[in-house]
Amino acid sequence: ASYPQQAAKDFYGPRMSRWQSAIAGASNSNTLDQVYREMEQAGIPGSFEPVTRLRRTLADAYVKQAEQLLANNQARQAQPLLQKATTLMRYGNTDG
Q1: For all residues of the chain together, what is the average pLDDT?
Q2: How far is 49 from 52, CA to CA, in rounded Å?
Q3: Longest dimension (CA), the chain
Q4: How would DSSP label each residue in the chain?
Q5: CB contact at 8 A, 84 and 36
Q6: Each residue's pLDDT tens digit, 1-15
Q7: CA angle at residue 49 from 48 to 50, to 5 degrees?
């Protein structure tokens, strides 16, 4: 059985819009971490294409923040952000 894409869009749409806004407006990794936790807890299948896109967006945001930390010689703080970005990218590639 295929995943009911339209029903999922209707159900998860508002939440995903909120996550997208939070990622776009994130000034630090705490905001990204909150979205990350909520996405994990929501249990949305990785094969759901809008989630795949959102995971990519979140991973990119983590990488950008990590790059800023690295530019300021804060490699230790950047490492967990890069690990989360890697996890997000792998998730979409292996699930479904």
Answers
A1: 89
A2: 5
A3: 50
A4: ----HHHHHHHHHHHHHHHHHHHHT-SSHHHHHHHHHHHHHHT--TTSHHHHHHHHHHHHHHHHHHHHHHHTT-HHHHHHHHHHHHHHHHHHHH--
A5: yes
A6: 566 788 888 888 999
A7: 100
Q: Decide which of 62 and 46 is more confident.
A: 62
Rounded CA separation 46/44 (Å): 6
CA distance 63 to 5: 29
Q: Look-up: residue for tokens 């000034």? A: 27
**Phi, psi values for residue 95, rounded to 5°:** -90, 145
